[in-house]
Amino acid sequence: MMSSFLLDSFLKMFTSMQCISIFLLAVQFAAVVSFQMATLHRGPKTALKCSSVIQKQRFALVSVRPPLAKPVLRMAVGDIISLEWGAVSDAQEGIRAAMADGHRLIEVEVPTTNKFKDKALNQIYQANTEYARELVRMFTQPGQLRIVFPDESEGRIALETYGEVPFSIGSLAYLSKDEAVAREVGLAFDKYVVMNPVFDVREYIQTEQLYRGVVAAKGGTMIVFNGELFRLRTEGLTGYYPDIFFPKLAEARKRMMPQVTTAYYLKVFRGPPVGALYRRYPGPWQILRPVDSAGQFQVLWEADQPAPPPQDAVFGALQAS
């Protein structure tokens, strides 16, 4: 009798616990649904807020246009210009003008592969190598020119690509060493083209060491080709390479970047919306939006300033256009 009573009590208690569990599950499900619905309702408000920020950015960009010291290549906001993507002759003109004005640390950034398709890293480097060969034809004394690749293996590949050339090829990994610096200073090279030093942060440090220890020491000129120097234009904890984690790079950046002059810059943003950030020295920085497929672009913003606008400002201007 007692055992039957205990069994009956246990079954009632088990049933009650099941009911409670089901009730708690239902409460959890309702809470999740409510949270998701609230998130969905917040979405448009967040988008509207971002849109407002973009509009403010665009207003700030377009409204502040300092006068240019030189009228070369100046366009008014809203004008339509023609642009040939990454023409070698345009890059050469920018380099000549920068060198004529006494600039000795020069940036060139140009798309060398299809600007709307992803490419493997080796294909990009190969395209850079071929473009650079055409670029350096502008120098009338190639015997005083050295093209510098990040490492010796890339230099060997370049030699295979070029065949016999009148200039010299070297590597950052070697030329930044102390024993190589003293020897290099005494050689006749006065122009150095450093190729895409972007794979490792040490390549940026070596680039600065080569410029400071060799090129500047003998009054030469260095061109950093497709070095993605925008990574070094921000500093502190919010920088592309936070100073606290990359202290040696931070020191190199502080020494090098104030001396950099951009001779030619064309960075494509594949969108949507599609656009570009453009400069040919001594002209202004320009944010461009294509208006057709025939190379016509509208100027959304321009300014005569040493450094380009931040990329988020470029995105904002393109999105708001």
Characteristics:
single chain; 46% helix; 321 residues; 9 helices; alpha/beta
Task: Summarize the structure in words.
The termini are far apart. The chain has helices spanning 2-63, 88-100, 121-135, 152-162, 172-175, 178-185, 201-215, 247-256, 311-320, and strands at residues 80-82, 105-109, 145-149, 168-171, 191-195, 221-225, 261-269, 275-280, 285-290, 296-303. The chain is globular, with a radius of gyration of 29 Å. With 321 residues, the protein is of the alpha/beta class. It has a ten-stranded mixed β-sheet, with helices on both faces. The relative contact order is 0.15. The model is unreliable at 1-7 and 9-73 (pLDDT under 50). Helix 1 (2-63) packs across helix 9.
